[in-house]
Amino acid sequence: MDGAPARLRARGIGKTFGSTRALEGVSFELRPGSIHAILGENGAGKSTLMRIVAGAERADAGALLLDGAEYAPLGPVDARRSGVSIVYQELSVCPDLTVSENVVLGAESSRFGFVRSRDDDARVLRALAPLTRARGDLPLDARVGTLSAAEQQLVEIGRALAAENTRVLILDEPTSSLGGDDVERLFRALGDLKASGLAILYISHFLEEVRRIADEYTVLRDGKAVGSGRVEATSNAELVAMMAGRAVENVARKAREFGEPVLSLRQLAGVRLPKSASLTLHRGEVLGIAGLVGSGRTELLRAIFGLDAVRSGEVRVRAVSGASTPRRRLAQGVGMLSEDRKREGLAGALSVSENLTLSKLGPLKRRGLLSPAAERLETERFITRLGIRCRDADQSVGELSGGNQQKVALARLLYHDVDVLLLDEPTRGIDVRSRNEVHALIGELAARGKAVLVVSSQLSELLELCDRVTVMHRGVLGEARPSTERDEHALLSEATGA
């Protein structure tokens, strides 16, 4: 709705945490019936700004106006009552509750003090209708902990839409755990919500998404708004330059020579997924696995690493086979990066140093006791190497941005000096420059003789990063072929069974 009065207006928002200035003088306007993208590198202040809008933080300076009236929520519940709902990048569902209970959590229908779940089910169906093909897609009585990450993300968005008077919807990296079909479904839903007059703030590192669905943008860098305007009037190169403060070049991949096989699978099958997977991974190789969400990609990596049970088949590490556990795999030189860093990859309450070194303290001991100086020195080495933005090695990981948390999880594998890296969505939630840095790091590791197995929902990333790519469809892993012989259309066709 061009020319419409602003639904949400931010004026000179500022926020300081101790000696760190997270935001300084940030202003933007969000109009009804539009999608406004908030862009910036990890640590630029995007999440802090959204938390202020959603009532989870209070600004130190500036003001917010909602439909022309002063808006200063006392907390997230107050913001939701005012019509502002947020869906965070990190899932915050209650795994032991049902889909219906999660969607209406905190706003249940009741009479005489008793919850009226039948009334809630009708509200839940209305909220989920734009997001699901049919009721059977997401059973209301299913425990959310049994759902995939993509399905849990849809439950979170449904919760935001279930509020009676939602006027502003904030989405923080909503597609980071969704596959192609679910992304398309979400985009169709956002188009319908936009047409209904809803105002949407959209955070994403995927510029192709922003260009496709957003009307306007604001770029943050180092806590300041450094650019804004119409998306259609701005090129991707200009957006990247604003985010990074300079032009960012794509990393050119050099041809690599492979060494001997270090990991081989023969007809590997899990309890449910995968159904059948065979491959050989060589030293110096980056091998990618494509596939839709639910195809069994993550389950395959978990089975290899010993996190999930193996029903049949064989995993060989340097020609050695046998049942395994994560402890044994690490001892064999195999490390895994989980796609769910919040629940499996990191301990949010512990420091950067503790997260990086906790699983391998032996080299840091002096006369049998842990040396804090040695631990700090080792951590600072990886902070510098990966460009982790943090106050110091003692800052808790939970205080870092999503991209920097991902770098800490990667740093732990480098600290272990594993020979085989199983990377599940390694660039999820990482900005353009950090993504290139991670790609360069993976290339550097391969050049040093490491073997890397990568799962990614981004087909372009697999083609750019990997030497060979294979596709998993309904639990069955296809033949690995050189990435130069593939394109996105062919990968998608194979992934969908077309």
3D structure, described in words:
- There is one protein chain.
- Among the domains are: 8-83 and 165-244, Rossmann fold, CATH 3.40.50; 261-333 and 418-496, P-loop containing nucleotide triphosphate hydrolases (Rossmann fold, 3-Layer(aba) Sandwich).
- The chain has 17 helices and 24 strands.
- Helix content is 33%, strand content 24%.
- The strands form 6 sheets. Strands 15, 17, 20, 21, 22, 23 and 24 form a 7-stranded mixed sheet that branches. Strands 6-9-10-3-11-12 form a 6-stranded mixed sheet, sandwiched between helices.
- The chain is globular, with a radius of gyration of 23 Å.
- The protein has 498 residues and is α/β, with parallel strands linked by helices.
**Beta-strand content bin:** 15-25%
- The name CATH uses for the topology of one domain is Rossmann fold
Overall pLDDT: 87
Distance between the termini: 39 Å
How large, in whole angstroms, is the Cα Rg? 23 Å
Shape label: globular
- Helical fraction: 25-40%
Mind summarizing the main beta sheet?
A: 7 strands, mixed
Task: Please name the CATH architecture of one domain.
Answer: 3-Layer(aba) Sandwich
Structural class: alpha/beta
Task: Give the low-confidence spans.
Answer: 110-114
Can you identify the CATH class of one domain? Alpha Beta
CATH superfamily caption of one domain: P-loop containing nucleotide triphosphate hydrolases
Number of helices: 17
